[in-house]
């Protein structure tokens, strides 16, 4: 159940209209996908379902950012915070999946407390399910779409979609260049600057995928390099997040020496991935 870019729905649109009228065409499929993932999660704890849910919510946050000039800042901030809360709830279990995989890949798998790690993962999944159920994801997402459409459709202003797309893409590109420059001059241990590049690159890629039919071919082709950047910086983020998760849960190791070796192996992998990410700056 892998979430792909929303390009098919985008290509089907008559891109000769106004940005305000097209919002729901972009948002509705993402909301449907997120709700399908949330429903599947109740019966299927598969890692890909969790990943797809988080990816759909991230795309929704990017779409809200794109439409921020046409919506009020307060609405964007509130909804983005809500979507981030949902994504984090799903992401906690996904983080355990990544940690387990990295430990098997980078250290002595024979020494890892697999049962304890899986138990921690199961506990996290239960918490994710409970959080999402209590939050009433379906109602929250539907209400957000309804309110955004109301604000856009009752606005007196109308913005040509092609002009709007170019303006928002230019803003995202400017932010991306600024963050890449900052990261290129940062110390190798400064992961925060790399994380900002990753987020900016992801936002830029999602925008291109949303607005692909009204963009220039050169702009669309840049998705290839953005995917490469996102993959490499995402791999770095995986190991950094796994290190922190393990530090916060060292009790899963009954042997302190095993815990120390696991953290050491992750630290070495982080440095390797840091060097790989730096080559793209």
UniProtKB/TrEMBL annotation:
Ribonucleoprotein keyword on record: no
Keyword field: Lyase
Taxonomic superkingdom: Bacteria
PROSITE patterns: CHAD
EC assignment: 4.6.1.1
PANTHER family for this protein: CHAD DOMAIN-CONTAINING PROTEIN (PTHR39339:SF1), SLR1444 PROTEIN (PTHR39339)
Protein's recorded name: Adenylate cyclase
Originating organism: Paraburkholderia piptadeniae
């Amino acid at each position: 159940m892998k979430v792909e870019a929303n390009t098919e729905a985008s290509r089907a649109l008559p891109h000769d209209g106004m940005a305000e009228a097209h919002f729901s065409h972009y948002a509705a499929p993402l909301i449907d996908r997120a709700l399908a993932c949330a429903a599947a999660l109740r019966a299927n704890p598969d890692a890909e379902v969790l990943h797809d849910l988080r990816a759909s919510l991230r795309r929704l946050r990017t779409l809200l950012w794109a439409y921020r000039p046409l919506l009020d800042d307060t609405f964007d901030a509130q909804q983005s915070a809500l979507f981030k809360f949902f994504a984090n709830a799903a992401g906690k279990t996904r983080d355990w999946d990544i940690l387990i995989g990295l430990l098997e890949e980078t250290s002595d798998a024979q020494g890892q407390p697999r049962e304890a790690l899986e138990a921690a993962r199961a506990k996290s999944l239960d918490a994710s399910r409970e959080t999402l159920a209590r939050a009433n994801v379906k109602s929250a997402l539907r209400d957000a779409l309804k309110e955004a459409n109301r604000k856009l459709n009752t606005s007196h202003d109308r913005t040509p979609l092609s002009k709007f797309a170019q303006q928002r893409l230019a803003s995202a590109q400017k932010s991306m260049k600024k963050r890449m420059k900052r990261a290129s001059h940062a110390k190798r241990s400064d992961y925060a600057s790399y994380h900002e590049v990753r987020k900016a690159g992801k936002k830029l890629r999602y925008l291109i995928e949303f607005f692909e039919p009204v963009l220039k071919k050169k702009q669309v082709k840049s998705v290839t390099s953005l995917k490469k950047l996102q993959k490499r910086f995402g791999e770095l983020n995986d190991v950094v997040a796994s290190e922190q998760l393990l530090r916060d849960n060292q009790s899963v190791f009954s042997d302190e020496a095993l815990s120390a070796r696991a953290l050491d192996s992750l630290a070495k992998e982080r440095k390797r991935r840091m060097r790989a990410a730096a080559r793209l700056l």
